[in-house]
Amino acid sequence: MAINHLHAFLESYFSAHHCELLHDTNGVLTVQLTEEMDRALMNRPFYWHYIKKMGHPGDPKQLTLITDPEKRDGKHEWIHYGSPRVHQIISHLHTNEKYTKLFEHVDTDHKTALFPWLVTNIKISYQGKQKMDEMISIGLHLVNGIMKLEMMDELQHKTIKNTIPDYCYTISPMIKLHSGFKRIEKVLENYVLDQNHEWAEASRQTMEEEINLLRHFYKGETAEQDMKKEIDEIKKRYSPYITFKVINGGIFYLKDEAK
Amino acid sequence: MNQIDIQQDSMFINGFEERLNTEGPFSSWDLFMMNYQAALTTMAPSFNGLKALDYLPQMDFLDHQLSCARQVVEDMNGRAILADEVGLGKTIEAGLILKEYMLRGLVKKALIIVPASLVNQWAQELNEKFYIPAVTFRKSYPWDQYDVIITSMDTAKRSPHREQILEQDYDFLLVDEAHKLKNHKTKNFNFVKSLKKTYCLLLTATPVQNRLVEIFNLVSILKPGHLGDYDSFLEQYGKDRKKLKQDGYLKQLIQKVMIRNTRQNAKFDAIKRNIETIWIDFAEEERAVYSQLENAVDVFPAFSKITLLRELCSSREACYLSLQKMITDEPREKIIKPITEAIEELPQHTKAAKVVDLINQAGGEKVIVFTEYRATQVYLQWYLKENGITSVPYRGGFKKGKKDWMKQLFEHHAQVLIATEAGGEGINLQFCNHLINYDLPWNPMRLEQRIGRIHRYGQANDVHIYNVAIRGTVEEHIMTLLYEKINLFEQVIGHLDSILAELNINDIESEIQTIFSESASTGEAKIKLDNLSSVIQLTHEETQQEEQQYGN
């Protein structure tokens, strides 16, 4: 599900933010920003501050992005995975698109129950000598406690909206939010602890080797302070640890599959 | 199995609960999914490999730069000496490594210490080539305000900066021109050693200049104890650099913390060096003054006479000024006065006229002229102007801003840059591919620095180097006996540092000066000089294979 096509990704990003796509051909995209998006991306807080003070509505900019390097013209911004603009858009997404509450769209003319799922996308980082990330998308049925992995892939095939569809009603959760999240954490914890942690062992071993070398280096010297600082640095660099970071999550009301 | 520390994320669920309480705002499905996709795209799914490459499509890395970055990240765990020869792109390697760590979320706070003259250049390269938001240190910025700061050693080690910097916890520290840290008793060394840092890169083209203990000291910053403790190291290897050759074990250890690419193994030779020696003859009047000076034995110590002769080969002005300074009493004045008077009578310098020819032959392309003497620099600037050629001066003594400005002027407006020796270090002028050595430095290392300004990473064309020498003068001896004999321009460049260290020659310049001053006749000096170059050449042949192993 990673971004395979930057151009399409940008189209959806700006469309989702209600920006009109003025010009959209292969490799070149011009959008009319909204005020909200101009504030988010164009880095001109003073303009907005003064224009509002003067009672003007303000004039959001247009933005032209070139996604195909062949189409570069020297005037407009070439955008690629490493460019500061993508970085900006991604951090804009990370800050703003963290929480949600959504409903599966069911086309029905009789009463249908929608069940609450707690869905979280969690990035697990394994850090030893080097670092590696893994993404887990996990869903918990807040009534019967069933869990599902690769939840995002499954949701992708459904129609999902912000509002509850006609004739549908929601079932109240049996499992509270916090304890539901605890269950998810517990499962992930077991998942990582069950793994083979050669990387961590290797890192620990290097750490010990370096600390031993260090003691040898300082042997007979009275530079207690220096040695402690060096040891701290080695520990900081090599002590293996794992972090969980929730990228985003929310409550999804879904139709029961079994029925 | 040891327990591994797991850090949970408690922020999310609390934030979510709050959001539910306030009934939103909630992300739309599209944006929610896009955030997930973005996170999938930016994560690093394996311990190995360079993720940064996906993010730098505009960069065209050379093979040795890629393997260097990989090795530092994967095998050296982020602490290394980058010791490529001048011009192979150490900055590029360092930038790539820093980028990789930042992308993997391992580095946030970085301190980059570089020579004052290079601060702006580093900032520009990191920002433009790597999209790393590095700022140069300004007085009004507190040290904890910005994540990636570039500064000079002089600023960093001065109070109150020193204290503030020592309080920071840096994820990444980089020191350029790190051979300045080779002595563990200096303030610079102790300052760098006491910085709190996780990853650390030391950049130098000359990791061992004289004694092996220099590399011991550099390694002590990165990995104390890797080469044992100080006393036993000194005892075992201290004085003698040859030990490196004999001791395969030591070499292996060093290779674990140091990467050295040479022009040879970096396949850098795609760009050719065209080297041409331009022989010229003094005009009759000039020759007369030269002999007059050469034969005036009594007044000058031999040492300064050789300098005066070299100066006369460079410009009337350089020699004249030095002579003026020597008139301290009447007997001296008696001897010097006739010479200075003769100099005053001289026409324009033959060499300067030749240089104008050479510049005109370059057909409007940019040319760098290197001279050893300030007075010559001023004279040349005037003389080129007389001949309708635009030029800008460049000196080591210029302030940072002025250096940048001069470089800009040269790139966009002037045809010629006239640099004195001190200007050799640091500036990158790969947009220029003609270099005139107006006079040759006696230390061939400095010549390497000079050529490295244009024959470096980023140079797209073959480079043309012209060495101008006057027949029948001291310049001829140096040119034929030293430079040409050891084939310096083609071969030895890049190896000379190790060769000289091998021979225990600390300062080749004073070595040569001694040869001239202690020889009774020109003939004797010639023979000694010849011997010196023979030894250098022999050592070069011996070390050539060794260098291959010493590198990667």
UniProtKB/TrEMBL annotation, chain A:
In terms of InterPro entries, this protein maps to:
YqhG
Q: Name one Pfam family in it.
A: YqhG
Q: What is this protein called?
A: YqhG family protein
From TrEMBL, chain B:
Q: Which PROSITE patterns match?
A: HELICASE_ATP_BIND_1, HELICASE_CTER
Keywords, A to Z? Answer: ATP-binding, Helicase, Hydrolase, Nucleotide-binding
Which Gene3D superfamilies does the record cross-reference, listed alphabetically? P-loop containing nucleotide triphosphate hydrolases, Tandem AAA-ATPase domain
What region holds the Helicase ATP-binding domain?
71-225
User: Which CDD domains does this one have?
Assistant: DEXDc_RapA (cd18011), SF2_C_SNF (cd18793)
Q: Name one GO molecular function term.
A: ATP binding
Q: Does the keyword Nucleotide-binding apply?
A: yes
Signal peptide range equals: none
Per the database record, which ranges form the Helicase C-terminal domain? 354-504
Q: Mind telling me which SUPFAM superfamilies this protein's record contains? A: P-loop containing nucleoside triphosphate hydrolases (SSF52540)
**What name is this protein filed under?**
ATP-dependent helicase
Name the species this protein comes from. Answer: Lentibacillus salicampi
